[in-house]
Amino acid sequence: MSDPGQDTPPPPQPTLTDGVVTLRPWTDADIDEAVAGHDEEIRYWFGFPVVTPSYDVHKQAVDNWHTWYAEGRRRVNFLVEADGAVVGNVEVQDRGDKRGSLSWALYAGRRGRGYATRAVRLLVDYAFEELGYERVEAEVDPRNVKSLRVAQRAGLRREGVRRVTPGMADVHDGTGVVVLGRLASDPPITEPEGFRSILNSALPRKRGISQVLVRDTAGRVLMCQLTYKRDWDLPGGVVEVGESPQLAGVREIEEELALTIDPGRLLLTDWLPPWGGWDDAICLVFDGGVHDPSILATMVTEPREIRTAEFCTPDQVAERAADYTARRVAAALHAAETGTTAYTESGISGG
Questions:
Q1: What distance in Å separates the CA atoms of residue 261 and residue 198, rounded to the nearest whole number?
Q2: Domain N-acetyltransferase: where (predicted)?
């Protein structure tokens, strides 16, 4: 990483190795072998206009890499060598604020042997130890499963998906790019904490919703009229990160209705498929017990989310709620009355 106020040229580009792969500076003697290694996979993922670049085009790239290195190492590109052959290249580019972006490519016939992971690990260590970066990151097309695995095995954590602008749609098919990052302060991947952190960042995460079935002595169900949709629903909401689902439903009732309800047993697990811009989710319905209707006399609704709340008969639930919500309420009521615990998908029993 360059210092804008420093005129001292950087030290010569080093050679790095882990005993299997070697990262070294490019020479003109490497160009023919590198050109021969380009194939449709490289062209596709990088959005190159042609499959195989000409010698002169690749020579210009090599010259640029040497220039950028000399100009404060704002881009450092290494040739990757294994068993005496040119197998690919890796690069880190200065993005400012002690942050570098990574890219890599392996040539045809050189993939599937672990070279990319080894090379990216060497590059990350170099970026932290020699260039002084505090963060490195990579942006990978979500369909490029091999590169996602390389990034994670090299110690980068999956952080999210960045949407792309329309101008990038031809390259990334409008799907966005997965952002993966690693901090200099992160524990090494060779340590249990570091390995678990990377694995945790890549595993699927499903949204959790906690609701509470509160009944009155007449057998009616407490339902909320929401401000952000026309349909009525059970009280509850999204479970926060690190929060108990059982306590989440109780918290939501306190925040939205100012009612204190003791948490009861789980009545229903309902899977909600993707719908209307929402990802799929798991909805857990807990038993809020039976209460005197007068409990609503102390209710204070949160005006940003709740218009009103009432105890509703089953017929009123069917009339006011969406069909899948009505099915969920009916399934939860049945579980409460029979002392069972049920599983449904969009309120429909799989059994």
A1: 38
A2: 21-185
Q: What is the largest CA-CA distance in the chain?
A: 87
* Of 202, 228, 255, the domain-final residue: 202
Note whether residue 8 is domain-resident: no
- 342-345 and 266-272: which strand pairing? parallel
Flag whether 61 is in a domain: yes
Q: Is the pTM of this model over 0.85?
A: no
User: What confidence tens digit (pLDDT) does each residue in 73-132 have?
Assistant: 999 999 999 999 999 999 999 999 999 999 999 999 999 999 999 999 999 999 999 999
Residues 113 and 143 in one domain: yes
Q: Which of the pair, 261 or 190, is modelled with greater confidence? A: 261
Structure-token match 């570091």, residue found: 194
- Do 88 and 64 lie in one domain? The reply is yes
Are residues 183 and 211 both part of a single domain?
A: no
- pLDDT of 199: 85
Domain that holds residue 311: 207-349
Name which of 201, 214, 196 is nearest 253 in CA terms.
214
What's the one-letter identity of residue 120? V
* pLDDT bucket at 3, cuts 50 / 70 / 90: low
* Cα atoms found within 13 Å of the Cα of residue 331, Cβ hemisphere only: 27
The structure tokens listed for 159 are: 């952080």
Contact 20, 118 (CB under 8 A): yes
Is 196 exposed, middle or buried (CB count within 10 Å of its CB: 0-12, 13-18, 19+)? Answer: exposed
Residue 245 token pair = 């689902």
Amino acid at 312: C
Angstrom distances, CA of residue 70 to CA of 2, 57, 91, 130 = 10, 20, 15, 15
Q: What are 211's strand-pairing partners? A: 236, 285
Is residue 285 exposed (0-12), middle (13-18) or buried (19+ Cβ within 10 Å)?
Answer: buried
Give Cα 156 distance to the centre of its chain. Answer: 12
Placement of tokens 């959005």 in the chain: 47
Looking at the fold, whether 213 and 195 belong to one and the same domain comes out as: no
Q: Answer yes or no: is pLDDT of 5 > 50.
A: no
Q: Which of 105, 112, 137, 111 is nearest to 124 (CA)?
A: 137
| Pairwise CA distance, residues 306 & 315, whole Å | 21
